Amino acid sequence: MMRFRSSLPVAVLLAGTVLHAQGAAPRATLKEIGKTSVGTPVMLETASVSRSGTVVTAIVRVALSPPLKHTNGELVASRTISMFDCARQTAATRESWYYHDAAMKKEGMHRVVAKPGFGPAFKGSLADVALAHVCAATAPAR
After folding, report:
1. Which residues, other chains included, contact 83 with Cβ-Cβ below 8 Å and sequence gap of 6+?
2. 3: in domain
3. pLDDT digits 0-9 by tens, 9-66
4. Quick check: is 129 in a domain?
5. Domain of 87: which CATH number?
């Protein structure tokens, strides 16, 4: 008759390895790319940048100053998946999250745009700062 050892130590070891691997996941690398007209830093998640023709898609973050009033409390930060058409100098939002805390842990609102439409980026806005940065990076060298 075969005897099986308890598999509890193996299960604990595997669970610990999985938890450690999840905790060791790389965090988004943020780079300050400029400031809005009110002086709020605009941050770019560097790993999120992708290009397709003249359109650059990237995730940008900003603290909201002043905070937005919301039914569940003030929203103090946002994270947005944006598209920037460098040839036309226009921007579009695909998806955005708004948070109640600066650490972006407590989500207050989430919006997905069904059909993003490109439009002008208002001077000094998050879109204007991000558009200038990502399109400068794609400009051909002279």
Report:
1. 55, 56, 57, 91, 92, 93, 94, 116, 118
2. no
3. 433 333 343 334 444 445 669 999 999 999 999 999 999 999 999 999 999 999 988 8
4. yes
5. 2.40.128.710
Instruction: Report H helices in 5-125.
Output: 8-23
Q: In 3D, which of 88, 92, 104 has the Cα closest to residue 130?
A: 92
Query: Range of 105's domain?
Result: 30-138
Both structure tokens of 59? 């995730």
Structure tokens at 66: 């002043």
In a domain, 113, yes or no: yes
Q: Is residue 97 included in any domain, yes or no?
A: yes
Q: Is this model's pTM higher than 0.85 or not?
A: no
Residue indicated by tokens 């691997």: 21
